[in-house]
Amino acid sequence: MTTNTQIERLYFIGDIHGQQEKLAQLLECINFEPHQPATNHQLVFIGDLIDNAPGFSGNHIALLNQVKTLTDQKQAHCILGNHEFNAVGWALKKADGSFLRPHTKNNYLQHQAFLTAVGEDSLEHQQWINWFKQLPLFLDFTTVRAIHACWDNDAINAIQPYLNKDNSLKEAHWHNAFDKQHELYALCETLLKGPEQTMPVGQFFVDKTGKKRTQQRIEWWHDYHLQKNAKPVLIGHYTLNGYPAKKSQSVVCVDYNAAKGDNPLVAYEVCLSAESAINFGDECNFHYINKASYANAI
């Protein structure tokens, strides 16, 4: 799906993880007025609206309701993040009664804050799962694109038969997306979680949940410009630190770990009628709260 309905300016907003107050502060920072009639300035949520550490101080319900209202009113777009994807897998059962995403202790800890907020197996829980299933995996605004973790042309082309016209996953294929023996599993892993490679024997790292991992992420953005028709692309997912900056001339990440503490919620502004829509502009295109946190990095 290509989206370019007389939109002049887009604000791509990074992973929020239930931090509704940070979203309110960011919208004030960019002078965006929620609940107004649709304008030619729109928001693009890059996914991972949900999940956080147990006991965090955010508000999942308020955040989800605000984002859905903005999308319903045509003030915003929202794409699927790996946490919304995992939420669907947590809720859906296989034919044998087990769940698409295993209900392990580690998976539960990642998802607990959202489940507590909505009430697991409640009507509200099911309503949000149904909404997550309707979210597109990526968006193309003619001159700029958005996807949660990785734009890979081969994966984008291969996944087309499994998608609706709006780039959401067809209802019949959600089970395939969690089946490691099905090609759709690897495609979703690449697009929503990013490509990985196996670390040398004996090497590993411990992730933020305390899990030991032997797979490390590939920094695919360095070679992205070599892909055919490599339009500029906005991503989230990578939990960056430090002063917001481009990953490459054609790739910008807007996930700066807003899930935690005073870390900023970041947005990147793109003017579709300007050169910045062809090659990303400099760091002045970033908008974020808590700018004082970066005084020493400038």
From TrEMBL:
Residues 9-141 form the Calcineurin-like phosphoesterase domain. SUPFAM superfamilies: Metallo-dependent phosphatases. One of its GO terms (cellular component) is cytoplasm. Gene3D superfamilies: 3.60.21.10. One of its GO terms (molecular function) is phosphatase activity. It comes from the Bacteria. This is Calcineurin-like phosphoesterase domain-containing protein. It comes from Psychromonas ingrahamii (strain DSM 17664 / CCUG 51855 / 37).
